[in-house]
Each structure stands twice: as C-alpha cells, then as structure tokens.
Amino acid sequence: MIVAHPDVPVSSIDVDTASKIFLQKERRWSDGTTIHPVTLAVSEVREEFSQAVHNRSELDLRKHWQRQIFTGRGSPPLERPSDAAVLEYVRTTPGAIGYISSGTRASGVKVLQLR
C-alpha cells in the first residue's frame, strides 16, 4: 500500500511514476513540493514492492544504489524499520511518500491508488 502526506496533490499514481519517485528520478510533486520517498528496511514487503513497481528484485535495487553512491550520482531513499515508522515519517513530512504492509491501518496519511 502506497501512502503519502495528506497534502500531496495526487490521489493515485501510476507504476512508472512511482518507480521514478522511489529511484529519485522524479523529485517534485506537480505543485512544486519536494518529494521525500521513504522505504521499509529489508523485508518481504520491500521485495514485493520492488517487483511490483520497479520490476526488479531487491538485490538488483541494492546494486543500483551501490553504483549510484560509488559514482556520486545519488543515494537511496530514507529507510525506516517498520510500517509504524514509515507512517510516522509520511504523516509528519510534507511531500513524503512511502509504502507499508497492505493490512496496516493507515491513519493520518493519504492512501494512493496504484494504477
């Protein structure tokens, strides 16, 4: 489940845009607000998200970020250790977007439909 700060200017997001956001290739919402992606630390949910959104394994994504860091072209999104920590970050950070386990209660955030 993809969640965002309540003030983000979208209610749904397509897979390509989601991938660009979490790969930090897209950095601003349509209203100019900086996008702050946050991911779960290594977990089953993270692997599922990587496959569904990036069409890559988590291992492939780690290699991607290692190359980005090594070449000075970027760094991975912020990580949080749990659904609750992701929710707290998204709830309190304007422009934030993250993902959580599908059964988690998402209060105080906007749930984005993935198209």
Kindly list the characteristics that best describe this protein.
6-stranded mixed beta sheet; 6 strands; 115 residues; alpha/beta; single chain
Summarize the structure.
The chain has 4 helices and 6 strands. It has 115 residues and is an alpha/beta fold. A 6-stranded mixed sheet has the order 2-6-1-5-3-4.
Distance between the termini: 12 Å
* Rounded average pLDDT: 95
For the largest beta-sheet, the strand count, sense and barrel status come to: 6 strands, mixed
Total helices: the number is 4
Shape: globular
Spans of at least 5 consecutive residues whose pLDDT stays below 50 are none
Radius of gyration: 13 Å
User: Looking across the biggest beta sheet, what order are the strands in?
Assistant: 2-6-1-5-3-4
SS elements, strand count: 6
Percent of residues in beta strands = 15-25%
Structural class comes to alpha/beta
- Secondary-structure element order, N to C: EEHEHHEHEE
Structure description:
This protein is of the alpha/beta class and 115 residues long. The protein is 37% helix and 19% strand. The chain contains four helices and six strands. A six-stranded mixed sheet has the order 2-6-1-5-3-4. The longest helix is centred in the middle third of the chain and has 14 residues, at 58-71.
